[in-house]
Amino acid sequence: MNDDYIADYLSYLELDMNYSNNTINSYGNDLDRLNKYFEDKNILKLTFNDLDKYIATLSDLVPSSISRNISSIKGFYAYYLKVNKIKSNPSELIQEPKLGSHLPVYLTVDEVNKLLDIEIEDAYSARNKAILELMYATGLRISETISLEFKNIDFEECIVRVVGKGSKERIVPINDYALKYLNIYLTEYRPSMLKKTTNNYLFLNNHGKQMTRQGVFKMIKQECLKKNIKKNISPHTLRHTFATHLLENGADLRVIQELLGHSDISTTQIYTHLTNQKLKDDYKEYFPRE
Fold it and tell me: Among 231, 221, 258, which residue's Cα sits nearest to residue 243?
């Protein structure tokens, strides 16, 4: 019964609200967790106290994950209130945790050079080199990267056609260096990875299928371990690094907004905080009078 409720809500998010697959999957995981906690109870009959106790069990998660879980739950009950399946919304009074203004982690130029210093020895090292060069050169999201197909890359014009959030398409330039290693991977190594299968995705796993988000995340963690890079790095770190390095070198914030595919300039402005923080850190380190 509860599985049907959740499936119906996720279908609503997909068909009526046009949410991305990643968002829908995240909401689905959050609601599955709620469902498992209450086992055989009808989740449409839960009370505020039930949900409040459940939220307390999420204390092991980071605040942003707790906040997303609460958003998933609130959206779920708001939908069933809207379609008259429940008389009141038991999640309405749940308070979301206050999120601090933590600045995103990014890599220095030296750290990027260390991370991208991959010797091509086989198909996997060629693929990993191509992925990391591409992500640093373009600032693509991980979901955008693994969804790339041959038709998205224009080697002559040196551009990538990206389908981002909300199915919006944008054009992102790509440098010759990243194109070089992308071409090496595609022409010399990718054919051997297909394993008698056929698909148009650029980046393949060891089964010859589209690489997953988890696969890229694991690969980056392994490369950081090899290179002794101590920062807590995820695929999104390369996106932050791309934007930060552009801004540090004089790029206009509006240009960075366009390249990243941000609909609102306020989202892009986080990178001005990063560069401002660097100015402060450099001032403290190099100014002789304390």
Answer: 258
Could you tell me the strand order of the sheet in which 153-154 lies? 153-154, 159-163, 169-173
Whether the CA torsion 214, 217, 119, 156 is positive or negative: it is positive
- CA 69 – CA 157 distance, rounded (Å): 43
236 counts as catalytic: yes
pLDDT tens-digit series, residues 98-155: 655 556 788 999 999 999 999 999 999 999 999 999 999 999 999 899 999 999 999 9
Summarize pLDDT for 36-66 with one digit per residue, the tens.
Answer: 999 889 999 999 989 988 888 887 676 778 8
Sequence-separated (6 or more) residues with CB below 8 Å from residue 205: 211, 212, 215
**Both tokens assigned to 70:** 């609460």
DSSP 101: -
Told to judge if 68 belongs to the known catalytic residues of this protein, a careful annotator would answer no
Contacts of 242 (CB under 8 A, 6+ apart): 135, 136, 137, 138, 139, 259
Active site (annotated) includes residue 239: yes
Percent of the chain with pLDDT over 90: 60
Active site residue 165: yes
